[in-house]
Design brief:
about 375 residues; alpha/beta; seven-stranded mixed sheet; 14 helices
Amino acid sequence: MLERYGHGGDLRTAEEAFGIAAEKFVDFSSNMNPLGPPESVKQALMAYADTIGQYPDPAVRGLRRKLAEHHQIDEQSIVVGNGAAELIDLIVRALQPKLTTLAIPCFDEYGDAVRKIGGAVYEIKLSSENQFELHLELEHLCEAAATGSLFMLGSPNNPTGQLVDPELIRTLLKKGAYVVVDEAFMDFVPEESRYSLVQEATRHEKLFVIRSMTKFYSIPGIRLGYIVGMPRTLSGLRRLQVPWSVNSLAQLIGESVLNETDYSERTMAWLLEERPLLTKELQAIGFEVNPSAANYLLVRIPKDAELSASMLQLEMGKLGVLIRDASRFAGLDHTYIRVAVKLREQNEQLVAALKQCLLQRRGVK
């Protein structure tokens, strides 16, 4: 089981499982920008040697200032954290919800954070027939909002890649719900200004938006994310946060990558070309592909292959290609995998390996 610790991208576990050196794998199980870190990250790393002997800024002022300029919001509306995972945990601890509504499948850490504080989780199961879209017409959605429930929603959602309609979230807020929107992959959405609720979160006391900087800028080794909300409602998070949660290197890199406009443009050009192409190639060999607004695809294994996600993950690993067993997400069965969109040559390697596994299963030499 490659998701021993609940995530993809665990190359050490893959090494142990398949006897292949970590650098030899092509990793489709984690959703990082395949362009790699921007050039400014290397420059920041070299410059960091001169300041490593100093404590980090406990208020993360420089990065909050740059993020505020980036989103055109007040820097007091931003709390920076040690990755989005810390911020999910912090907001749940601050709000102490008795009931939290999740639209499954979704990121497991939403429910984990709620259960850690003894809160109850109410699950709304999204339908594959509706491409896992969240609609107000879903049974009990508005009723849960009226109880004052906390909603935790991914947009784009992980693992489905579906965006949440901002009007749906506004409706939930009007009905009295608290809403946390996880926009960890929103940087990959060309129509970000239409779907992101960052600016609205600064004006609504029950709305919070979490963003990640690790996926888009391909810096998962540097845990870095931030949450946006009204300054008054964020004060509780600041009191709960561990001092110096964000180290000085993460702060320096965060400031540097926000200047990378050319990198952002190249990323968008790559994704808009490669995602539909990979989708088409996967469909051509019999896989169902859920529409995605992000840099990953939720994929259903052909029925006639008689392969479970865990079996296919094992066979692919032997070939040096790592995929995510999506059946480990609540609400998905054993026929689902998730794959990242990568560079053309890597995507072709993924398709070739999947095709080989299918042919072997069907007994074709």
